[in-house]
Amino acid sequence: MDSSAKHYTTTTGLLDLVDKRIHVTLRDGKKIVGILRSFDQYGSLVVQDAVERIYVSGAYGNIDRGIFIIRGENIVLLGELDEDEEEKLESLDLIQLPIEEVLEIQRIETEGKMKKEKVQIQKLASLGFVFDSGSGQDAF
User: Fold this and answer.
1) pLDDT number for residue 106
2) Where in the sequence is the domain holding 29, given as residue range(s)?
3) DSSP-derived secondary structure letter, 14
4) For the whole model, what pTM was predicted?
5) pLDDT value at 54 more than 90
6) Same domain assignment for residues 66 and 123
7) Which of UniProt's keywords are assigned here (predicted)?
């Protein structure tokens, strides 16, 4: 094995990503794209020119966030973005829409999911299953 190819399992592994374009998926489902400028020993990140990208059926929209500070415990996925690959979004039949349209589509999709979930819960309740009234979100 080549000794120059070290694989770090700590935040030191982020050194190669500094000043590069990254994609971060957060615990609450948000997806952030931007340039990694700094990090600390806890895995917290400072992302410059950050954009929150929202995906909906066949489309996506961007919300400019500027400088974004992300606490390390909220990161689910982190990776470098290849500029050439990002340009291939159009080949995936994803079109960029104005954020207002994306948010409206997202609202409609969320309402539909909630109605479907309510019907499922009612059906399971009729079979004797009990559900708590919690939102299902993390309590943190």
Assistant:
1) 92
2) 1-96
3) G
4) 0.73
5) yes
6) no
7) Cytoplasm, mRNA processing, Ribonucleoprotein, RNA-binding
